[in-house]
Design brief:
binds adenosine-5'-diphosphate, about 700 residues, alpha/beta, Beta-Lactamase
Length: about 700
C-alpha cells in the first residue's frame, strides 16, 4: 500500500502481459518470450520460447485479488486507518480516517500528523506512543484531536509498528474509532452523577434540619406532658393530657416513618450486623404492645422455638421495627381473640440459621382485592381505616423495604373476618456470647444514688432545658445550665461536673465544637452525652467522633435519661470510658487454648477463685466427655444433647472456641445428623478438650508452685 504504482505503469504492464500470455483451452497459462535471430547483419527470423507459468500466474493473481479485497474493506470500514513513517509523516490514510479528521488524502500525504491534529496538551502523550512503536511495541489509547474545522473529537486508536521488507520498523500503522459520542455520554453521566450526589446531600441536609426542627418541639410537648402528668390533675384534665400525649406519640411515629422512607429511598438505610438474642428481642416487642393488647382484651403470645440459637448476628433494631409494625397492626385490627408472635428455626446453612418469623391475628382480615396494593406507600384498605384506626399506610411499605435490605420478603395470608398471618424469614449467622454488645448496667437507676451529683446541661432551647432540668432535679441532681458551647466551656473552667449533657445544634458554638475543645484543649475527661434531635444516619458516629461518650435522641423519656446518667456517673470504678464502638473482647490468639479474662474480671483479682474454677472445669469436663461417649455408644440422642448442653456455658466462659462451635452443633442440631456423622464430631471435641485439660493442669501446677 505504501508504494502503490501509478495508473499509467499499471496499464502498460497489463498490455505487455496480454500480448505475451496465452491462456490455453486446458486451463494452463503459457508465457511467450522471443528474440530476433541474426545471420551476420541479416535478420533471418525469431527464436520463440514458450514456458508454462500456470502456478506462478495463479499465485500472483490470488495475491492481487486478496490485496484488492483488503483495500476495499479498509476503504469502506467504519474505522480509520493511517500509516506514518518514522518522521510521523502520513504515508497512507483511508477515506474514513480522512472523514474523521476533516482533511483530504492529498492534504495529509507527506505531512506530519501530530502537528496537524494534536491539541497542545496531547503532544507529550503521542510522543510516548511513537517511542513505543520505535521499540516495536503495540498499544491502544484514547486521545482527543482537533479536526480541520476546529472541532474536538475523541479517537480510540490501536497502533502497531509498521515494518519494511527487512523487518525494520519504518513507521506506525494505527486503526482508530471515533468515540466522541461515547465520550459525550460518559461526560453527561458523570455530570448527572454529580448532580444526583449533590441532590442527595441537599436532601440529607434538609432531612437533618427538618428532623431537628420537628423533633425539638415534639420533645418539649412530650416532656412537658410527662411533667404535667406528675402534678395533681382533675380527671378531665388527665383525659385531655392523655389525648395530647397519644397524639404527640402518633405524630412522632409518622415523622419517624417519613424519615425512614426518605432514607430508604435515598439508599441510606444501613443494616447492622451485631449479636443479639432473639428471645429477648421478641419479649421486648411483646412488652411494648402488651398494654395496648390488654386494653382491648386480647391475648398476646410469643412462641420461640427452643432450637433458636442464643446469639445470632443481624440488625436487631430493624427486626424489632418490622415486628413492632406487624404485631402493632395485628393488635390494631383485631377486636377479639389473640395475637401471636412466633419464631421458628426453618433450617441451618453453613453457620447461619434460617429464622421464620410469623405474626398471626384473629382480626378483621384483609380483602383479597386490596392485598395486591397493600405494600404501596400511603395505602390503606379503605378511607374509614384512617378514621377508625389511624395510621399512615406507610408501615408495611417500610417493613418490606427493610426486609428486602436483609434479603427477605414479607408474605401475607389473610381471610376477611378470620384473621391475618404475616411471615418473613431471615438467614442469620450464629454468634457467640462474645458478639453480644456489653450490657450497659444490670441495675436500674436508683434516684437515691444520684443525689447530689452535679450535671452541666448545655441546651439552647429553653423548653428542652427546663424539661431536662426538671427531670434531673426530681432525681435530686444539681444542675448548672449553659445556653451554648461557649458558656459551657466557661462553666467547665470554673467548676468540676460529674457529667455534661450537650445539645448538638446550638448557636454561637455547637456541641461538636464545644466537645472537641473540652477534650483537646482542656483535656477534660468528664463523660459527655450528646442530646440529638436528628434521627439521620451518621449523627451518632459524628457525636462519637467529636469525643462524646454516648448520645440520647430527643424526645427522650425520664427513665432513659436517668439510666444514661446513672450508667455514666455511677459506673464501677475502673470501668474504662467506652470507646466509640462497643468494646469487643480482642479475639483469642490462634494457639491460645482458653482465655481467663472473663474469670479474672469476675474474680476481681482473686487467684484462688480462678484456680478453683479451673479445677472444677477439668473435673466436670472429664465427666462430660465420658457421658458424651456413653450416649454415643448407645445412640441416645437426648443424653448426648444433655451432655453437650451441660458443657456449653463453661466452654463459653473460657472462650474454648472450636469446641464451643462443635458442642453447639451437638446440642442444637444432633437430631439432623446420622450416627456416622456425629461420631467424628465427638472425637474431635474429645481431642480438643483433652488438649485444653492438659494445658490447664500444667497452668494450675505452675500457679501452685508460683511459676505463673
Ligand atoms: P397503617 O397501619 O399505618 O395504616 P400499614 O402499611 O402498616 O399502614 O398497613 C396498611 C393497611 O393494611 C392498613 O391500613 C390495613 O388496611 C391493612 N392491614 C395491615 N395489617 C393488617 C392486619 N393485621 N389485619 C388487617 N388489616 C391489616
Amino acid at each position: 500500500m505504501a508504494d502503490a504504482p501509478d495508473m499509467a505503469t499499471q496499464v502498460v504492464r497489463r498490455l505487455e502481459e496480454r500480448l505475451n500470455l496465452f491462456h490455453m483451452s486446458n486451463g494452463r497459462v503459457v508465457e511467450r518470450e522471443f528474440g530476433p535471430v541474426w545471420d551476420g547483419d541479416t535478420d533471418i527470423g525469431f527464436l520463440w520460447k514458450f514456458e508454462d507459468i500456470t502456478e506462478s500466474y495463479k499465485a500472483k493473481k490470488g495475491l492481487q485479488l486478496r490485496e484488492a479485497k483488503y483495500r476495499t474493506i479498509i476503504d469502506n470500514m467504519q474505522l480509520g486507518l493511517v500509516e506514518t513513517d518514522l518522521e510521523k509523516r502520513v504515508l497512507y490514510a483511508n477515506p474514513n480516517y480522512c472523514n474523521f479528521i476533516g482533511y483530504t488524502n492529498e492534504e495529509l500525504l507527506g505531512n506530519p500528523l501530530p502537528s496537524l491534529l494534536m491539541p497542545y496538551g496531547s503532544l507529550p502523550h503521542i510522543e510516548q506512543q511513537y517511542q513505543l512503536r520505535e521499540q516495536g511495541v503495540s498499544s491502544s489509547y484514547e486521545m482527543p484531536i482537533v479536526t480541520k474545522d476546529g472541532k474536538t473529537k475523541w479517537l480510540f486508536t490501536g497502533a502497531a509498528p509498521l515494518y519494511d521488507q527487512e523487518h525494520a520498523v519504518m513507521g506506525t500503522i494505527g486503526i482508530s474509532l471515533d468515540i466522541t459520542h461515547m465520550k459525550q455520554l460518559e461526560q453527561n453521566l458523570r455530570e448527572a452523577k454529580q448532580q444526583a450526589e449533590y441532590s442527595a446531600k441537599t436532601k440529607e441536609l434538609f432531612l437533618a434540619n427538618m428532623s431537628h426542627e420537628i423533633r425539638t418541639p415534639m420533645n418539649a410537648i412530650l416532656g412537658m406532658s410527662q411533667l404535667l402528668a406528675k402534678t395533681p390533675l382533675a380527671t378531665r384534665q388527665s383525659n385531655y393530657l392523655h389525648a395530647i400525649t397519644t397524639s404527640a406519640e402518633n405524630l412522632l411515629v409518622i415523622i419517624n416513618d417519613i424519615l425512614d422512607l426518605t432514607k430508604l429511598d435515598a439508599g441510606q438505610m444501613t443494616i447492622e450486623q451485631v449479636g443479639f438474642n432473639v428471645t429477648r428481642l421478641c419479649a421486648q416487642v411483646e412488652k411494648t404492645l402488651l398494654y395496648k393488647a390488654e386494653e382491648k382484651g386480647l391475648a398476646l403470645n410469643t412462641v420461640i422455638d427452643s432450637l433458636v440459637p442464643d446469639v445470632v448476628l443481624g440488625d436487631p433494631y430493624r427486626i424489632t421495627q418490622i415486628l413492632l409494625n406487624l404485631a402493632g397492626n395485628a393488635v390494631k385490627f383485631t377486636s377479639k381473640g389473640a395475637v401471636t408472635i412466633e419464631c421458628e428455626v426453618a433450617g441451618v446453612e453453613s453457620g447461619a440459621v434460617w429464622l421464620a418469623f410469623t405474626v398471626r391475628d384473629t382480626g378483621i382480615g384483609i380483602d383479597p382485592s386490596y392485598l395486591k396494593y397493600i405494600f404501596q406507600e400511603f395505602s390503606q384498605e379503605d378511607v374509614s381505616i384512617t378514621r377508625k384506626f389511624g395510621g399512615t399506610g406507610l408501615g408495611l411499605s417500610i417493613c418490606r423495604s427493610l426486609a428486602r435490605l436483609m434479603g427477605s420478603e414479607i408474605v401475607i395470608e389473610s381471610e376477611k373476618n378470620q384473621g391475618t398471618t404475616i411471615h418473613f424469614a431471615l438467614a442469620l449467622p450464629i454468634g457467640t456470647v462474645d458478639d453480644l454488645p456489653p450490657r450497659r448496667s444490670a441495675t436500674s437507676p436508683n434516684a437515691q444514688e444520684l443525689r447530689g451529683k452535679h450535671i452541666l446541661l448545655v441546651e439552647d432551647n429553653e423548653y428542652n432545658r427546663l424539661m431536662a432540668k426538671t427531670l434531673l432535679l426530681n432525681a435530686h441532681i444539681k444542675v448548672t445550665e449553659a445556653e451554648n458551647g461557649e458558656f459551657a466551656i466557661a462553666c467547665v473552667r470554673e467548676q468540676r461536673f460529674d457529667l455534661i449533657l450537650m445539645d448538638v445544634q446550638m448557636p454561637v458554638m455547637d456541641g461538636f465544637e464545644a466537645t472537641r475543645y473540652l477534650r483537646e484543649q482542656m483535656g477534660q475527661t468528664t463523660p459527655i452525652i450528646a442530646l440529638t434531635a436528628s434521627a439521620t444516619s451518621g449523627e451518632k458516629e459524628k457525636c462519637l467522633a467529636a469525643g462524646m461518650d454516648d448520645y440520647l435522641t430527643k424526645p427522650f423519656y425520664e427513665d432513659e435519661l436517668l439510666q444514661l446518667v446513672y450508667d455514666w456517673v455511677l459506673r464501677p470504678p475502673g470501668r474504662p470510658l467506652p470507646p466509640a464502638a462497643p468494646p469487643k473482647v480482642a479475639p483469642v490468639p490462634q494457639r491460645q487454648l482458653y482465655d481467663l479474662r472473663l474469670l479474672e474480671s469476675m474474680g476481681q483479682g482473686d487467684q484462688k477463685f480462678i484456680a478453683s474454677m479451673l479445677q472444677t472445669f477439668i473435673s466436670s469436663t472429664g465427666t462430660a466427655l465420658r457421658d458424651l461417649h456413653a450416649a454415643l455408644a448407645v445412640g441416645n440422642l437426648a443424653s448426648l444433647q444433655a451432655a453437650a448442653h451441660k458443657m456449653c456455658p463453661s466452654l463459653r466462659h473460657l472462650h474454648i472456641q472450636p469446641a464451643i462451635e462443635l458442642m453447639d452443633t451437638i446440642e442444637n442440631w444432633a437430631g439432623l445428623f446420622s450416627y456416622d456423622d456425629l461420631q467424628p464430631i465427638v472425637e474431635v471435641v474429645d481431642l480438643q478438650l483433652r488438649e485444653v485439660i492438659f494445658a490447664m493442669s500444667a497452668e494450675l501446677e505452675a500457679r501452685r508452685t508460683g511459676g505463673a
